[in-house]
User: What shape does this take?
Amino acid sequence: MTDEKELWRHNFKQVIFFVEVAQENLQVAPSSNGVAERSIKDGLREGVFHHLLEEKKRKAIYNAELRKIVDPVLEAAVTLLDDPIATPQEFVEGLEKIATLCREATETIDWMEDEEEVEQVIDEFETRYLATLATTLSSHFTIATKLAKHKPVDGEYFDVGTYIFSKDPGPGRVHVADLHKAMDSGVSTTSFKRGFVSYERFPPIQLMTYGQWFAYIHAVWDEWYRPRLAAAYSRQLGEKFVKDDIKSAFMGELNKIRNDVIHNQARVNKSEKNKILAWATADGMVGMTTERMLGLREMFPRDELLTPPNKGEAPKTKLLPWTATVELIEEVTRLAADLGLSRREKNEIGNEMLRLWLSNHSGE
Assistant: This one.
């Protein structure tokens, strides 16, 4: 399912949830003397209808079929907000009409084909790239602010669960000095000789925060957006592409940094020959500085991804993405040995299994 469809499915499900609660409340208190129309409508605009109205104003829906599904719900929401509300019953009835449209829209979305365009896939990937990067860059702000306000009289231990300082150690508490060390990224100052200079340190919290983003964004690229981009290019160019045909030098180098940070304690190994993300420091560390992370916001490889892929040589084999019971595998192994199958004939067992499964289920 595309990001766009998933978003609207969520929007509609959220409206349905709100309407169900409103119906429950009306059943419990059917004799209410009236409703505060202005506050209710403000609540709808700023709360449950917020995303619907925001997207209506932006008019950013790619898929024309999806737009036809969404428009009636948006129109019904606007009508409810424009019409006067006299009683709770009228209010809930108006919401129920919207909820009915939302249920129908959700069912239709679930049956839609994901025939998205190349530009849509890239735009959705860029949105996720930038939104998660923004969160990563600000993720330690709360704890840093808390530490900046710390006073000795508050206690020297920080309770991770309650986010308050304590005078006594205990489970789930870390000494403030250790917390500072986990966040200390070095110092910057001015040299009359060299100008603005920095001594850089890459503390655990920084490596964890930035490393997690690298791991996440590479995972969604490789497992979600590459296959979708391959499918979109296949439709656009009329030639069958697979995930491995979709390549990006930028994402490749990003993956090498991810590998070094997660698997090599942030020491340069795989990323040693990086040209785009040449982040190696003089002492052989991956220099994940805040300045470099900020620079990533302008490095999204849009032009690279908009370049049509070349059809690569497809791999001859691939490991099956499923498991089987040990007993069944051993039984097949024994039978293959009893039959005296050659290595080449044994390699054909997997293809024979898949053909048999497809034959038994293709008519369902």
Observations:
- Strands lie at 157-159, 164-166, 173-175, 186-191, 195-200.
- The mean pLDDT is 85.
